[in-house]
Amino acid sequence: xxxxxxxxxxxxxxxxxxxxxxxxxxxxxxxxxxxxxxxxxxxxxxxxxxxxxxxxxxxxxxxxxxxxxxxxxxxxxxxxxxxxxxxxxxxxxxxxxxxxxxxxxxxxxxxxxxxxxxxxxxxxxxxxxxxxxxxxxxxxxxxxxxxxxxxxxxxxxxxxxxxxxxxxxxxxxxxxxxxxxxxxxxxxxxxxxxxxxxxxxxxxxxxxxxxxxxxxxxxxxxxxxxxxxxxxxxxxxxxxxxxxxxxxxxxxxxxxxxxxxxxxxxxxxxxxxxxxxxxxxxxxxxxxxxxxxxxxxxxxxxxxxxxxxxxxxxxxxxxxxxxxxxxxxxxxxxxxxxxxxxxxxxxxxxxxxxxxxxxxxxxxxxxxxxxxxxxxxxxxxxxxxxxxxxxxxxxxxxxxxxxxxxxxxxxxxxxxxxxxxxxxxxxxxxxxxxxxxxxxxxxxxxxxxxxxxxxxxxxxxxxxxxxxxxxxxxxxxxxxxxxxxxxxxxxxxxxxxxxxxxxxxxxxxxxxxxxxxxxxxxxxxxxxxxxxxxxxxxxxxxxxxxxxxxxxxxxxxxxxxxxxxxxxxxxxxxx
Length: 575
What we know:
By secondary structure, the protein is mainly beta. Helices cover 10% and strands 37% of the residues.
């Protein structure tokens, strides 16, 4: 299709050839300071017996007690050599750092999804993953797959791998990916307790890996897609009560039993939905960013039943189409929804959003880590990672730029969600800082959805002097602070406030470090670092040596043993 960039043609797309490179080009070393092999590590064995870390610098704060749980792919060879062709295809591996009495213990465990159990037994993929097509089970002929499709039995057709994130839902904890499944986790043992089929519960065919959690009410919101043969595809905001004290093995008493729709907007195209990995929330609005990376509704069932292509083959990017921002009132009595537009971009993670009144005008801001296009997804194919050093464009494709988008909420009710291009007003946009960064985190407990000053991230500049850099961004002064250790590759930085914190950056940063390079401590080595968020200086470093390889993780959550007694929100300012 003219004017499109298709992920379905990877094997012969000119870009993919440039990413993968050839054997004759392997002597080229464009990024001497970056070791992409850290993404290729596979955990052959779980670490169920706690490994005590050795404090090699500073002191673990005596007030810090809780569990840092992280999630990520367990490696491309978890089911056998070469079974996974994309980083996102590996089974979810949970990492736990148990912090108590100035000591830290580490364990990990694979999430026992249906896909993991079947794949590990067969030593191959039984159901296709994001970037790898699976040879169908010979015991399940095509008519059984057709039957499962027409009966909407997605658990028989679609993988339930959950290797991206982990979140609290009230006093229950779930690991998530973007397929319509959620796996309840016991954070004491890391055992998988149960699986929720979100499609069966609520009719959602896809949901994001990053729900929004409201501090005051405990309510959980997530964005998903529904499809109706009468109304076509729609984006849905679902609300779960998130009330604590309901934890039970009885699913009728879980947060999922309270799920209800609180927002809806039609998809821009009748036969495609746009890929959404995250969204934003403010006190009065949900902000959905409809990027022009489309998922064909027709190609997904075809490939699941008859096709010989992975899930990624259903994605197609339209660079000449605008990105659409949907601003949906949280007050269900207000029916006016707003649309705004900007030139096409790709994104995975929003940073934060907030409302502000300027000269009597109501404005909504949303900050996003943006890419020009989705080529960074292709950069995470195993062959692309292996040959990254020979690709002169790899750094440009992998770099995410943090941008701020401003939308003025007009009182003119004619400018509602039914307005079509080119009448949709444009957003105002600006680059926050000129540095590549990803997996952004903020002082979420207090400043999510509110005016804020700081966010924390990891570097996405593979061509920098030290690609493994932690970053603190001041969104007001547009300045940065950085911290790094030679050949160390940090995970997403998690902010946790000090007890009785008074300012936005009164707290610590928690990040897990892997080591690369020829003089690496080895793939079985890892550190947990604790930084003071305000000065962005190292407070403590805890080293671990394990009996198994440690893969790189993606997202996590800190579960404090005792919640910090932060000051009231009104007393904590974005200074």
